[in-house]
């Protein structure tokens, strides 16, 4: 037999046998690594630091039109504006073992042209609103203390108000309404009202 006619079938079989063992070991290793990652994720997954609910929601439209006179009685152009004030009573619970630092509340209304957002007024501005609009047909509850600390296991409740520059008809065309509760060093909590919006 010449060198050109050597039988190499035995060599090919040994390579094939070795490859199947490597593939089998790689498959087993991949399954074991996936199981270890899944176990770690399940064990390490923590519940959210805060839970909450929107207890009640009121929407009050205001049509504002100035008299056309300044403080001295001189004529000036009239200013006309429409706004919708959204009052929401919120209950928040800290279910973690550490204090939570409330930073802000954002009210989000999804309209046909996109999402409109408005930060909640500070508690002092919330109280002043009832002085500026004495006939406001919304219960004057306790304001939610923004920039406050919620201790571990503590539940707090209060009302926030946000104002949107739009007409009642525009607000009524909304597709969604929710609140984003912001905390320092923690993910935000998004609350959607499970109660109807009372319009007054």
Structure description:
The protein is an alpha+beta fold. It folds into two domains: 3-44; 50-199, Immunoglobulin-like (Sandwich), CATH 2.60.40. It has three helices and nine strands. Strands 3, 4, 5, 7 and 8 form a five-stranded antiparallel β-sheet that branches. It has a four-stranded mixed β-sheet with strand order 6-2-1-9, with no helix packed on it. A hairpin with a 1-residue loop joins strand 7 and strand 8 (186-191). The radius of gyration is 31 Å and the shape is elongated. The relative contact order is 0.21. The mean pLDDT is 85.
Number of domains: 2
Largest sheet: 5 strands, antiparallel
What's the overall average pLDDT, rounded? 85
Q: Under the CATH scheme, which architecture of the largest domain would be assigned?
A: Sandwich
Q: What Rg is obtained from the alpha carbons, in whole angstroms?
A: 31 Å
Amino- and carboxy-terminal Cα gap: 104 Å
Beta-strand portion reads 35-45%
Low-confidence stretches: none
Number of DSSP helical runs: 3
CATH C-level class of the largest domain: Mainly Beta
Run of helices and strands:
HEEEEHEEHEEE
Shape: elongated
Helix content: 25-40%
How many β strands by DSSP? 9
